[in-house]
Amino acid sequence: MKHADATVIRGIPPRADIAWFLGDLLSDEHWREFDMGVAHSQAMLALRNALHAYGGRDAWLRFIETTRRIVPQQLLAVPIVEILELAGARDMPQAPVLMTYKPTLDVYAAGRKLGDGLRLDVLVRLTPADRDAQGAYRLYDTDIDITHEGTSIQRCIARHYLPLPKSTP
User: Which of 42, 43, 139, 156 would give a disulfide with 130, using CB separation of 3.0 to 4.6 Å?
Assistant: First the structure.
């Protein structure tokens, strides 16, 4: 049995936001690259090149130091469940939900903020796939793509279960 090919399915918490999904987007291997200050994967090379063009090596090194704090603080506040409710996705099981988010990551060098920050484009597509037998959960195919100036930094394609609200009479 090939475990590497298996699709990982997990539940989406009630207040899931973009930061929660980043657990899939930034793997342990990518974090190790940050920690060592190197970039071997295509995703990290794209991000490093963007930072180098933006503020030089100091910007890249500072980004490594602060990313673990910056990402959870700035790629957030987009409650997935609320977006689904506003889009009526729970009433339209065949309709995909498309959401875009344009966060700006602050970049520092020698303790000073460089310019206006590094602008990212985050595209989230949630496509309802199936319900469980009792109808309490809906399975979503999720596609999350983070780019900078048209260059893909990271992409996540996975499946997640979202708990549905209880019906009221």
Answer: 139
